[in-house]
Design brief:
With 151 residues, the protein is mainly alpha-helical. The chain is built from six helices and four strands, in the order H-H-H-H-H-H-E-E-E-E.
Length: 151
């Protein structure tokens, strides 16, 4: 017997599309890590490979990253955040703020790439990014006029 399901799959959004359609809802630490990893152009497998010291540690590293990028989970040890930070750029203090502080005291974070005032996107050509909207930086929405500088 064949089962038919309605098509619910959609293609993943690009960073700019994600940032443009994102609401100002609270960002979780898990989503922040995923955004920063993706902004670095790294897959979960690549990050796990860089965290692992040998082949036996790759599977546990993969599991750790999947768990940390699942909403509702947070890193228990500062060493975990420092190990991840050695592989891709993010701010552990921003992560901890998202994990422990009330939503009204969360920092402003781009919903396209996860940058913030504390860890802005930078390029040799343009320097640090600026805020294009309340939820997006000028790297994710390049055709917009900056409303405020990240720095």
């Amino acid at each position: 017997m064949m089962h038919a399901f309605p098509r619910t799959f959609t293609m993943p959004m690009q960073r700019g599309e994600r940032a443009a359609t994102a609401s100002a809802a609270a960002l979780t630490p898990a989503v922040y890590l995923r955004l920063r990893r993706e902004a670095a152009g790294m897959s979960i497998k690549e990050v796990a490979g860089m965290l692992a010291r040998n082949a036996d540690e790759v599977a546990p590293a993969l599991d750790l990253i999947y768990v940390l990028e699942t909403p509702g989970n947070t890193a228990r040890h500062p060493e975990t955040l420092e190990a991840l930070r050695s592989v891709f750029p993010f701010d552990p203090d921003v992560y901890r703020q998202l994990a422990t502080d009330p939503v009204d005291s969360h920092p402003r974070i781009c919903r396209g790439c996860g940058c913030s005032h504390w860890d802005p996107c930078t390029s040799d050509e343009h320097g640090a990014c600026a805020w294009a909207t309340d939820t997006a930086c000028t790297v994710c929405l390049p055709d917009t006029v900056p409303v405020e500088c990240c720095q």
